[in-house]
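Data availability (excerpt). The following record was deposited with the supplementary files.
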Amino acid sequence: MAYDLHLAERVSNLLERKGVIFEVKKMMGGWCAMVDQKMCVGIVKDQLMARIGPDAYEEALARPFCGEMNFTGRSMKGYVFVDPDGIDAADDLEYYVDLCLAFNPLAKVSRKKKKSDSSSRAN
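Predicted structure:
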């Protein structure tokens, strides 16, 4: 199992109860809920990955079981990982999802990479 399926179901159910329109994508070996074509909240293995933005970052990091998101050896400010113990309770999960939803309108859409079309090149 690449990611926690039960946690994915909890996040999906929470987003649906809030009336959020989202699309699920598999990325980074995990699960991601895209809102308005932007990465909003996800799961990597058994951790919640929350895109909360820079304004909520320090306050979230002060909570138990919350840490910096670090994929490449350096932290990604505005993103946090939350260990399973930090989202056991429904209100804890909702706290992070609400932060993600609050930041989502401010987040930028990632640019899609253009595919090179080698067949259209002249010889």
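Summary of structural features: The mean pLDDT is 89.
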